[in-house]
Amino acid sequence: MESRRSFLSKIGLASAGAFLSPSLEAMILKKEKLKVALVGTGVRGSSFFGKNLVKTYPGEIEFVGLCDINPGRLAYAKKNMGVSCPTFVDFDKMIGKTKPDLILVATTDATHDEYIVKALENDIDVMTEKPMTTDEHKCQAIIEAERKSKKKVIVSFNYRWAPYYTKIKELISSGEIGDLVSIDFNWMLNNYHGASYFRRWHGLEHMSGGLWVHKATHHFDLLNWWVNSDPEEVHAYGALEHYGHNGPFRGDNCRTCPHKNKCQYHWEITPGSHYDKLYTRNEHYDGYVRDNCLFREEINIHDKMSAQVKYKNNVVANYSLTTYSPYEGVRIAFNGRKGRIEAWHGIPFMNKEAISQADMHKQEMMQGEDNHHYKPLVLHRNFEKHEVINVKEEKGGHGGGDKRIMNKIFKHPNSPDPLNHCAGTRDGAMSILIGIAARRSVERNRPVKIEELTDLRPREERIIQKVVGPERNS
């Protein structure tokens, strides 16, 4: 009789690389408009998944519904997006009345699974903001729901699509440094961007999974994609040592704080601004305060994180995330049997950039900007002179990644994908499972194996399936 492990392994293969259900590709090629519904109309949902899509793909998609638990935020988002579709505070009513082809999920991280599973149970394709979900139990529920459904889940891993990170993938895949052995990956969040997570709901582990999951899912997905293998074991250290209860003082929020003149982290929401209209004016509906004190006692996520990840193919990655750095950026080094790649991004003194750290983050989140520039990386081949490779990139939209992932989905679903940029449920799972394993490792003071968490079994080489498109509901 077939063993349980063998059986589960085959099930994992069936859902491993699927990006979308088979008939969206045909629908888009026929130039039929995709009926789209959005749940979660906060700043990310109403901009990246909302206004940006309305502006960029008017011939490809039609918003048929918006949903949010906050009716005030919902009304403002509808106006700001420039759509005329109905709005709902009840998700079940929305999908029942609008019958969308695709659900876009941009709610708080801990609720992603609820909407993903409901969509799959109703045979609707889903595109979710990262992370796919926040713990192993919710991850397992999504895996099982997709196995039973005719539809698929897309995880919006936009960093993969950025030209700079794509160039690294090309160099590794073409064997420029031989077989990959190890990676050193250090991500720095500055005192503006890093602090913002602790002001928001992200500072509560039960809502975000902590930055191990919410933020690092981007980084772990890049690692998984570059290594082309599944993570096998994680050993991590982490603590809360700067924000939360560590602060010298605290207030109710930045607007009313008596310490604003001496707090270096004070952040003001300008009256009449987008954030004011979206959040401040709608606090009374659900109690969500956008400019919360980042020294409030309830914060319980780590602000210091370091992990070692062992892959099934024996590559080892050393990872760290700093949340209160003077500058924001990343340093990555790839060690191979025949050479080494050194890459960095956003390091101001290396790039000779004078832009402020606050403006840098705003620029990164902008959509549709074709402001081209060049970023270097260094290729070292053993016993040869090093080579500096300048990669043409774009400012805004996660280095050009946002535009590319959306074009693939909504314009060119049948276009070639030689580097396997497209990410489905297994990719979403393997990235968050590293972060979840890291949290568990800190809690249990021991290494944690990925197979302890769900029934997915790590594979030595990632499994890729043909990318196809969502199906139009009749």
TrEMBL record:
Residues 34-156 form the Gfo/Idh/MocA-like oxidoreductase N-terminal domain. One of its GO terms (molecular function) is nucleotide binding. It comes from the Bacteria. PROSITE patterns: TAT. Residues 169-450 form the Gfo/Idh/MocA-like oxidoreductase C-terminal domain. It holds the Pfam family GFO_IDH_MocA. PANTHER family: BILIVERDIN REDUCTASE A, BINDING ROSSMANN FOLD OXIDOREDUCTASE, PUTATIVE (AFU_ORTHOLOGUE AFUA_4G00560)-RELATED. This is 4,5-dihydroxyphthalate dehydrogenase. It comes from Fulvitalea axinellae.
